[in-house]
Amino acid sequence: MTHHSKAARFVPLALLVLCAGFVIQSFIPVSHGEEKQAEAPPRIEVLFLGSKNLFNHDPPTRFRVLREALGPKAVNITYANTVEALTKENLAQYDVLLIFANLYELDVKTQGQALLDFARKGGGCVLLHCAAACFRESDFPEYVDLLGAQFKSHGKGVFRARIVNQDHPVMKGWKGFECWDETYEHKRHGKDRIILQKRDDEPWSWVKTYGKGRVFYTASGHDHRCWDLPEYHDLIHRAIRWTAHDDKVSWLSPQHLPTLRYRRAAAPKDPKNPVGPLNQIQNPLTPSESLKLAQIPPGFEIRLFAAEPQVVNPIAINWDQQGRLWVVEAFDYPHKVGSETPRDRIKILEDRDNDGVADKVTVFAEGLNICTSVLPVSGGAIATDGADMVLLKDTDGDDQVDQRHVLWSGIGLRDTHACVSNLRHGFDGWIYATVGYSGLDVTVGGTRHQSSQAVFRFLPDGSDFEIVQNTSNNTWGLGFTEEGDLIGSTANGNASWYLSIPNRHFELVGRKGQKVAQADEPEDLAPITPDYFQNSPKGKHSSAAGHAVYTSRRFPKPWWNHRVLVCEPPMHLISAPQIVRTGDRFRTTGFEHNLYA
Questions:
Q1: Is residue 541 a contact partner of residue 591, using CB atoms and an 8 Å limit?
Q2: Residue from 288, 371, 377 nearest 327 by CA
Q3: Which SS3 state, helix, strand or coil, does residue 507 take?
Q4: Per-residue DSSP letter, 569
Q5: In three state form, how does the secondary structure of 3-71 look?
Q6: Domains, in order of start, for the chain
């Protein structure tokens, strides 16, 4: 990304656990001039400027379709649905601005000027279909000059636009397509265009330059009948590469990407999502190959922290105050409950020379069964072990467990997908966690506590216990805001909730407690591959695992205490929606934004 300066690079202190190949990757802070380890090669960064779901254009859906199609081709696409994204600082993070939107106004002096400056200084512009009608209610003739024409009117029909310049890099080797679309006519035609396609005599697709920048426009793309075509995806991909005009996307030496290979799987093909080899399983990639296909936000970097054989089958992670990573390796999960030879274990991974790579691995405990969470504490760790919550004590400081004490028992095991998750230190000195529909039946201090699925807490010595509030279904995610508010996620249909009134306040007056309050909006996710298989709800969080509030200061300021990280393993991503506070309520929105995919 060399054609114009980039913003400062932010790298979070978070970990990503990737199922294929069992690697742990980290976002590590990088300063300019610092010697860096091998990292992911650069990808083309594209800002997709859309608008809220309007008529058949539906930019949010078109963004998701394009992201799945071009993600495996080293194209990162970030979505914005407002002209507020048109700032000098924001655009500086991208190689290409793609516009497919119904946006009629903008602030010409600030937003309009930022757009023009981006193009003049070398930024690429890919303008699709309704982009020719944008900003018509603002006095912005420069945009018409940038695009090369303006929308006038349209009919409709099935047709094939005729290629008139087969030798241009965007067109070379491309065969075109026939589909239903609107038959755009344009006005205010510019004279400095190179026409690539025509519909009858109407210019249909063209390219031009604008200062140091390159511009591509096509009138194709009204609705899914065009957007679902691989040929249309290919056209946009070609346009993105050409407008980026960087060495890394040279037509003569394209970036080498790993070939995805598949083997037959027993999983049935999903008739509701026929795109992609859903009845096949992708063969694992090496860590370095995975890095080439990973998408993270602009200005972030992703690096490998640990991989097999250092860590195998990771199911849960946590940090101690020394900055060491504690990992649960799950070999019994999900089937071997009560195994005579339990095989789960806990490891400690350390980076002793501060190069961002784990260089010391210690087995802290082994012989555990269905261990689903670990929490470092003074002198050892607290972890689940079958039906027990146990304190594993290291009495001699060698980072290996010497004593095992049962704090309490009663973790339900009827379905190991729904046991205890996310042990966390609370602000009040208690330890918090969640449990799914396998439930709890715990007796502490002579008091019995039962719940089918809930948020609960207990004292570190096991002397007290409380079901804080019940949840709606299988519950995994748990996190705290800086103010101490507790929010989390369930696996199905409630990707973000917040603790409202604890059960104990209802019980004091003989009432039954309410469930946690729903915070998430009914929004789709944005994977970068069609190779996934989901249960209900389709396209949304169906296995929301983890709900960490970003409360550090390594990320840009808009992230601080305002973004959450929610894992979705089936879709191979970590979404990063925003927390919006309205009085004593929370709303979580913007699930199309990912930290990792």
A1: yes
A2: 371
A3: helix
A4: G
A5: CCCCCCCCCCCCEEEECCCCEEEECCCCCCCCCCCCCCCCCEEEEEECCCCCCCCCHHHHHHHHHHHHH
A6: 44-244 (3.40.50.880), 310-436+456-467 (2.120.10.30)
Contact criterion met (CB below 8 Å) for 119 and 211: yes
Hey, how many other C-beta atoms are within 10 angstroms of the C-beta on 171?
Answer: 20
CA-nearest of 148, 150, 128 to 59 is 128
Angle between helices 230-244 and 59-70 (to 10 degrees): 80
CB 431 within 8 A of CB 376: no
C-alpha–C-alpha distance, residues 258 and 260, integer Å? 6
pLDDT > 90 in the chain, percent: 72
Sign of the Cα torsion 162, 167, 169, 172 reads: positive
Dist. CA 280–CA 496, nearest whole Å? 31
Using DSSP's 3-state secondary structure scheme, residue 301 falls into: coil
Lowest mean pLDDT segment, chosen from 7-11, 13-17, 500-504: 7-11
Residues ≥6 apart with Cβ < 8 Å to 199: 159, 161, 162, 183, 184, 219
Of 152-156, 244-248, 259-263, 330-334, minimum mean pLDDT range: 244-248
For residue 419 the two structure tokens come to: 């046991």
The set of residues, in sequence order, having a beta carbon less than 8 Å from that of 397 and lying 6+ positions away, is none
Burial of 264 (0-12, 13-18, 19+ CB in 10 A): exposed
What single-letter amino acid sits at 100? F
d(CA 180, CA 203) in angstroms, rounded, equals: 18
The H or E element spanning position 563 is none
**The 594-596 sheet, strands edge to edge:** 545-549, 564-568, 573-575, 594-596
What contacts 44, CB < 8 A, 6 or more positions away? 74, 75, 76, 95, 96, 240, 241, 244, 246, 248, 249
Q: Is the pLDDT of residue 237 over 80?
A: yes
Burial call 235-260: b when 16+ CB within 10 Å, e when fewer: bbbbbbbbbbbbebbeeeeeeeeeee
Residue 32 CB partners (closer than 8 Å, separation 6+):
none
- Do residues 197 and 175 lie in contact, with contact meaning Cβ atoms separated by under 8 Å? no
Per-residue burial over 218-227, b if 16 or more Cβ lie within 10 Å, else e, is bbbbbbeebb
Structure confidence at residue 351 (pLDDT): 96
Give 572-594 pLDDT, tens digit per residue.
Answer: 899 999 999 998 899 999 988 99
Q: Summarize pLDDT for 184-234 with one digit per residue, the tens.
A: 999 999 999 999 999 999 999 999 999 999 999 999 999 999 999 999 999
292: confidence class by pLDDT, cuts 50, 70, 90: confident
Of 273 and 546, which is predicted with more confidence?
546
Q: CB burial class (10 A; 0-12, 13-18, 19+) of residue 426?
A: middle
Which has more pLDDT, 430 or 20?
A: 430
- Which of 18-22, 62-66, 194-198, 284-288 is predicted least confidently? 18-22
Contact 138, 150 (CB under 8 A): no
